[in-house]
Each structure stands twice: as C-alpha cells, then as structure tokens.
Amino acid sequence: MTVVSVSHAAVGYDGREILHDVSFEVGAGEVVAILGANGSGKSTLIRTILGLTPLTRGEIDLFGTPRRKFKDWARIGYVPQRLGAGSGVPATVGEVVASGRLARGGIFRLPRTADKTAVRDALTAVGLLDRINDPVTTLSGGQQQRTLIARALAGKPDLLVLDEPTAGVDAASQEAFAAALGRFQSTGGSILLVAHELGPLRPLIDRAVVVHEGRIAHVGPPPEPAGHHAEPDHDHVHPHAVPQPTGICVAPTDRIAAN
Ligand SMILES: Nc1ncnc2c1ncn2[C@@H]1O[C@H](COP(=O)(O)OP(=O)(O)OP(=O)(O)O)[C@@H](O)[C@H]1O
C-alpha cells in the first residue's frame, strides 16, 4: 500500500515555479527523509502534500485517495518545527499532547479514559511522562520537540509528517526522539520527514529523497552527512570514511546500558 504518492508535481508561488516535476512515494511502514539545501523546496513539498499549498500540475494521493478528495486527516500526524515561542499560552505538557486527540473527535469520539491513556502512552513513548503537569515553557527546545511528537502520536496516526524535527535539538532529545520514531515504525507507522542533518535518525531511514533547486536529484540511501558529501550527486560511500564512534558525546550516563 502506498501512503503518499507524488506524481509529476509542480508547485509555485506568485507565478514562480518552485518545484518542478517531482515524483516519489512513501510505502506503508517506510521512513522517507526529504533532504536538501536551504531554499531547495523541502517545506513547500511537505506543505503541498498536506494540502496547505496548491499544486500547479501533477497528482498527489494520500492512502490511495487523490488529495483533493482526501478527508481522513486523523490518519496523518503533523509535527511542525517548533511549538511557537512566546505564544503566551501557559499550556501544560499534558494539555498540548491532549490537543492531538482533537482530530479524533466527532461522532466517533472516544471516551475520556481512552484520551487520557493515549496521552500518557504518547508521553511515555517520548520519555516525558514525568513532565505531564509542567508548563511547556519550562521545557528545553528538544523536550518541546518531543512534546510535539507526543501530540502527533496521541492522535494514533498511520503517517507522521515531520518538518526538521531535530533542528537545534539537544543530543539526548535527538536520541529519545529517534527511539520514539523507531517504536512508531515498528508498530506499522509510516514516516515522512524533512531534515538537514539526520544524526541519530539515520539508521531509521529507508529512503532519502534529495531535492535540489526544486527537482529530485537523488532517491536512495541517505548521502553522507558532512559538507560536500551532502551534495545531491554525492551518493557513493567513501572507502576512507571513518565511522563515528557511537555515543561519544551524546549519551548521558543514565542512558548507558548496565552491561
Ligand atoms: N509563501 C511563500 N511565498 C513565496 N515564496 C515562497 C513561500 N514559501 C517559500 N517560498 C520560496 O520557495 C523557495 C523554497 O522554499 P522552501 O521553504 O520550500 O525551501 P526549504 O528547502 O524548505 O528551505 P529551508 O531548508 O530553508 O527551510 C524559496 O525560494 C522560498 O523563498
């Protein structure tokens, strides 16, 4: 089953075409990363898939349904870049996560206990259950990001769409975030994420889609991370590449296994 299908998509703003003839798919249970330089069109692509920006040409299907007819938005959890600093709303972590249940409303509204369980399960998945009653403003940037993924998970989506989920996020939160995404995938979830640096997310990625100046430049294994290695035409493995030692600067002692 194809969860997202983008076929020959073109998208523009004010008559200026930003994405040209873009095609790729996300299969059920796959983790696909959209990579590319600043301004290459990654966010535009995500916004177009979510129906926030119109297509100029081409087709997008979601769960096998043309996007313009798709109504089952509760199947998609969207994690934006940031909670929005200074919103002035003194919401607690639990309240923010509970807002992810809203799309599950209407005549199929689940009982309150199911909502509470879903909120607690989602916070457990991202390692923040102990902060459930704290104002989100007291969390670090990385913990706020984990709160957003918990909000998306609480809605029990089939597809998570994440826009630069680890940008500016501390290393411990990135690890916790990657673990939560891994658990989501292991239960059959599909993931489409935009990233600059994959970091701890790298092992999760089934396929990378590299966007370069509005066109797909590479589909396949994620290119090597640093500098020119991230260029779209640079997709081979270097024989001299030295693997980074894992956990050298990211794992606080309480995350190191006892044996
Ligand atoms: N609402 C808009 N109106 C007009 N032009 C826009 C709009 N949004 C984005 N653009 C332009 O579209 C191009 C692609 O932007 P987009 O945000 O999709 O790139 P990106 O790859 O996500 O970049 P970044 O990594 O910096 O977030 C840029 O030239 C940008 O200036």
Describe the model.
The protein has helices spanning 42-49, 93-98, 112-125, 141-154, 171-186; strands at residues 2-13, 16-27, 31-35, 57-62, 65-66, 76-79, 159-163, 190-195, 207-212, 215-220. It is of the alpha/beta class and 259 residues long. It has one domain: Rossmann fold (3-Layer(aba) Sandwich). Strands 6-7-8-3-9-10 form a six-stranded mixed beta sheet, with helices on both faces. A four-stranded antiparallel beta sheet has the order 2-1-4-5, covered by helices on one side. Strand 4 (57-62) and strand 5 (65-66) form a beta hairpin. The model is unreliable at 228-259 (pLDDT under 50). Bound molecules: adenosine-5'-triphosphate. Residues 1-238 form the ABC transporter domain. Residues 220-248 are annotated as: Disordered.
Quick tags:
single chain, 259 residues, alpha/beta, Rossmann fold, 6-stranded mixed beta sheet, 4-stranded antiparallel beta sheet, 10 strands, globular, disordered C terminus, binds adenosine-5'-triphosphate, transport, AAA+_ATPase, ABC_transporter-like_ATP-bd, Metal ABC transporter ATP-binding protein
